[in-house]
Design a protein that fits this description.
The protein is about 65% helix and about 5% strand. The two termini are about 30 Å apart. It has about 900 residues and is mainly α. It is globular, with a radius of gyration of 29 Å. Among the domains are: about 170 residues, no CATH class; about 170 residues, no CATH class. β5, α20 and β6 form a beta-alpha-beta unit. It is built from 39 helices and nine strands.
């Protein structure tokens, strides 16, 4: 079915820029992609034969031709080619394109690392430019508020990434491991000679790894368990975060201290604290139980203790300082005597390994105690990480007293930073549950008594609170004290947390430390947030916590459900307004506020560059503290490589510091006042148009018909169910992840832009909109993010998905709004094509889009067969092809959910 695009403004001509983009690709990246592509072709030929490679090439050439000549018939011919494939060949072609994307993504990621390394190699630490590095941010802040005030703010800055297991990472762990090995070999090629045995060996190993990638089944046979998800993320800690965070502290400290770096006490206080929802988030996930929460905390602690033990051993290896020239202080001798009293056998062995090396032997004994803590040997174990830190400080002070300052503030300081950052728990395990679950549990207890025959879910709720106490007793209060309440809609929802805790422990005096954190998710909840918070201050448990914690309050804002509720533009404006009002409430009540941003990876869930988002926040809403969720595939994209992880952390912390600079606060405040009438007009028009679509009769069923929503639910990519209910009769029970993921798979990305075009057209004042883009950071961020989202859409592919439904009216609404939004974004940014001003990102999208189109056509073939029911293939075979294509499209468009 053909749909007519109807817009009120003339559209810019679509311009073919693939040829230009291809030439703009940096030579090292182009060479890496070429080598990987050629090796993949060789593997396909060896594995399946020339026929597969011929079919892949034919489809690739037609897809490219369709982009180069959009008015031609190449796309239709590509569709015919796909229709003629046997199902076995269609699967092979889908897997081939998916492998290509994995390899291309690997090459692009490594090129980012290459660029970062080159930038670091040529950077002059004494000459800062206006970039987004942390030293530059400190320098800029100092020019505005003075050196002393800038240092004070730096000492108090907080960055809290919270790792979550939302199922947007469609790759198997086996596939991810294979990709990581390929990435290491790509990096190795950079340091090898241009020929000879070394490069030949690399070629051989690279071909073997690509062959393994091709032969590894891309689909999991079963869903990962919650503890599988915990172990996956712990792998990221082991490979990058354990080392990256101390390295970021060191880099900043070296700059601040200049020539004194490494010889004087550090001025950088550890500003990062990790959090995790994996094993604690039970909202809608029946697989997260009290037992799982305890196990998750134990796994994280084992990883932290193992890393600290290894780090202590490595540090001790460098402290071979002879006691004659570097004598132990009396304090260190006392520490050694205490250690000997714990185990004479270990002390004798350590002393024999470190003859007349008092600092080394003390630290080796510390490593033994860490091993004992991990194995739960009560005679040797540390009780808390504070005890460990005290012992390390004794060693450090002794080195300083002996004049060995470089050893005192070298690797030993790195170990201290690790202890201060990770403790014995690694990441605070945050718990989350839906407010309705608490209400049902309280009603059950009221009817039957706490010792009555309670419903299993009520028993689980009480066991969860008992688990908090168990975890805190083992690892300290910071290991698990935050309890997030989903859909907080009244102060009683916060009171329920404390009431249930008291019921679980038989009274308030035995309850562990708990901070109930409200989560405001829907548009209505965001609007009501301040009133709820105001009344929450009257709760005695809240007043008690404020007295204990220095009047610190955390409030979480949900990006996903608010966007699904009123559309991406209205949700962004509502979130901005809520932050402004909550920040004012905090100032009025002398509260130290931390806003917790529940941002997803995709633009429809609050995704996009985090540092730019921070700088666009309302004045006073950040105040040196930034906390956000890092979800699914985003964890690996941001923290999978140490260089990229360090860059991301620096950028976000730099933005967190700068957001409180007078110039930034003044700009944001003035822009908010200046463009408030515009914001109101945009909100009304956007929300109305969004609701006209999603509240149309039959929309949920139509949505499930024109996207692979139901089939995505079959993917074993996460332990959490895709929806709270059993059907798609209502969007209320559909989680935001499949909502965004499904539109992304259909090449529509509706969740990231729908409603914006109509809103901009309703203003019909290009000069005013361009002024807003130049002067209002929030609006600029919205437009730039939507531009990125639109770059991954395709009207022709989208129209084919929309034709799977029987609602021409809804399909036409979507296509018209897509074109309308693209027109206004280009007009506001004064561009001739999407992403033309962002050359690096633009050329990457342009070059990979035809390959995504090829996978989309394969997916459409499967989806048509499943929807019509008259395909000759079996349903399960069509589902397999569709799921294979889902993996490929996810790899091709990236940040999908």
């Amino acid at each position: 079915m053909a749909y007519v695009v109807r817009v009120t403004a003339p559209l810019p001509a679509r311009e073919n820029r693939r040829g230009t983009a291809r030439h703009e690709v940096p030579e090292p990246l182009r060479n890496d992609v070429r080598v990987l592509g050629e090796f993949l072709g060789r593997v396909l030929r060896e594995s399946v034969g020339d026929g597969l490679l011929v079919d892949v090439e034919r489809l690739r050439e037609l897809a490219i031709a369709a982009h180069d000549e959009p008015e031609g018939d190449a796309l239709a011919r590509a569709e015919e080619l796909v229709a003629g494939f046997t199902l076995e060949r269609a699967e092979q072609v889908a897997r081939a394109f998916t492998c290509y994307f994995h390899l291309a993504n690997t090459a692009e990621e490594y090129h980012r690392v290459r660029v970062l390394r080159e930038r670091e190699a040529h950077a002059d630490p004494h000459t800062l430019t206006a970039d987004d590095s942390l030293p530059s941010a400190v320098a800029q802040l100092a020019t505005e508020v003075g050196e002393q005030e800038a240092r004070r703010r730096l000492a108090e800055v907080e960055f809290r990434p919270v790792l979550t297991a939302h199922p947007t990472e469609a790759r198997r762990r086996a596939v991810s491991r294979s990709i990581r090995r390929i990435a290491e070999l790509v990096a190795e090629r950079d340091v090898l000679s241009t020929g000879g045995v070394s490069l030949a060996e690399n070629d051989r190993r690279l071909l073997a790894e690509i062959d393994t990638l091709w032969r590894t089944a891309p689909l999991r046979q079963s869903k990962p368990t919650v503890l599988d998800e915990v172990r996956t993320v712990l792998g990221v800690f082991e490979s990058t975060l354990a080392d990256v965070l101390p390295a970021v502290y060191r880099r900043l400290d070296d700059w601040l201290l200049d020539g004194d770096a490494g010889t004087t006490p550090p001025v950088v206080r550890p500003f990062a604290r990790l959090g995790s929802w994996i094993g604690g988030d039970r909202d809608g996930n029946p697989n997260v139980t009290a037992e799982i929460t305890r196990a998750a905390a134990q796994l994280a602690s084992e990883q932290a203790l193992l890393e600290l033990e290894r780090s202590a051993v490595r540090t001790a290896a460098g402290l071979t300082l002879d006691g004659a020239g570097t004598p132990a202080s009396s304090e260190l001798n006392a520490l050694w005597q205490r250690e000997r009293s714990l185990s004479e056998a270990i002390a004798s062995r350590v002393a024999a390994e470190s003859p007349n090396e008092p600092h080394r032997r003390a630290l080796l004994f510390v490593a033994e105690r860490l091993a004992a803590t991990r194995s739960r040997n009560a005679d040797l174990a540390y009780g808390t990480s504070g005890e460990l830190e005290a012992d390390l400080l004794v060693v450090q002070r002794s080195l300083v007293d002996a004049g060995a300052t470089r050893q005192a503030f070298g690797d030993l300081q790195r170990l201290l930073w690790q202890v201060q950052t990770f403790g014995f728990h690694l990441a605070e395990l945050e718990l989350r549950q839906h407010s309705q679950v608490h209400e049902a549990a309280l009603a059950d207890i009221a009817a039957k008594g706490v010792d009555g025959d309670l419903e299993p879910r009520t028993v689980e709720v009480l066991d969860t609170f008992r688990t908090i106490g168990t975890v805190q007793k083992r690892f300290g209060p910071d290991a698990a004290r935050r309890y997030i309440v989903s859909f907080t809609q009244k102060p009683e929802h916060l009171a329920a947390v404390y009431e249930l805790a008291e019921l679980a422990y038989g009274g308030a005096e035995n309850v562990p430390v708990i901070d109930a954190v409200p989560l405001f998710e829907t548009f209505a909840d965001l609007q009501a947030s301040v009133g709820i918070l105001e009344k929450a201050l009257e709760l005695p448990q809240v007043r008690k916590r404020l007295a204990e914690n220095g009047r610190r309050v955390e409030v979480m804002l949900g990006y996903s459900d608010s966007s699904k509720d009123v559309g991406p533009l209205s949700a962004t404006l509502a979130l901005d307004d809520a932050q402004r009002r909550i920040a004012q409430w905090a100032r009025d009540n002398d509260i130290q506020l931390t806003l917790f941003h529940g941002r997803g990876g995709a633009l429809g869930r609050g995704g996009g560059p985090a540092n730019r988002a921070v700088l666009a926040q309302p004045p006073g809403s950040v105040d040196g503290r930034f906390k956000l969720t890092e979800q699914g595939e985003v964890i690996f994209a941001r923290y999978g490589d140490p260089h990229i992880a360090a860059r991301h952390i620096e950028q976000v912390v730099a933005a967190t510091l700068l957001q409180g600079a007078p110039s930034v606060e003044r700009r944001n405040a003035e822009a908010a006042d200046r463009f408030r009438p515009l914001a109101d007009r945009l909100d009304v028009a956007s929300r109305s148009h969004f609701h006209a679509l999603v509240k149309a009769e039959g929309f949920p069923q139509w949505f499930a018909q024109v996207t692979p929503l139901e089939e995505i639910g079959l993917l074993p990519i996460g332990s959490r169910p895709a929806r709270r209910g059993l059907s798609v009769s209502s969007l209320d029970d559909l989680r935001a992840i499949p909502w965004v993921f499904s539109w992304s798979q259909a090449r529509i990305n509706l969740a990231g832009w729908y409603g914006l075009g109509t809103a901009l057209e309703s203003v019909d004042d290009l000069a005013e909109l361009r002024s807003a883009y130049e002067q209002w950071p929030l609006f600029a961020t919205i437009i730039d993010n939507v531009e990125m989202s639109l770059a991954k859409t395709d009207e022709r592919i989208a129209a084919r998905y929309l034709a799977l439904g029987d609602r021409e009216d809804l399909a036409q609404l979507v296509l018209d709004e897509m074109v309308r939004t693209r027109h206004w974004v280009l007009a506001i940014t004064d561009s001739d094509a999407i992403l033309s001003r962002r050359r690096i990102l633009g050329r990457a999208v342009q070059l990979r889009s035809p390959y995504v189109d090829a996978l989309s056509l394969l997916q459409l073939r499967a989806l048509r067969g499943l929807r019509t029911g008259d395909a000759p293939e079996r349903t399960e075979d069509l589902q397999r092809l569709l799921l294979l294509s889902v993996n490929g499209v996810a790899a091709g468009v990236q940040n999908t959910g």
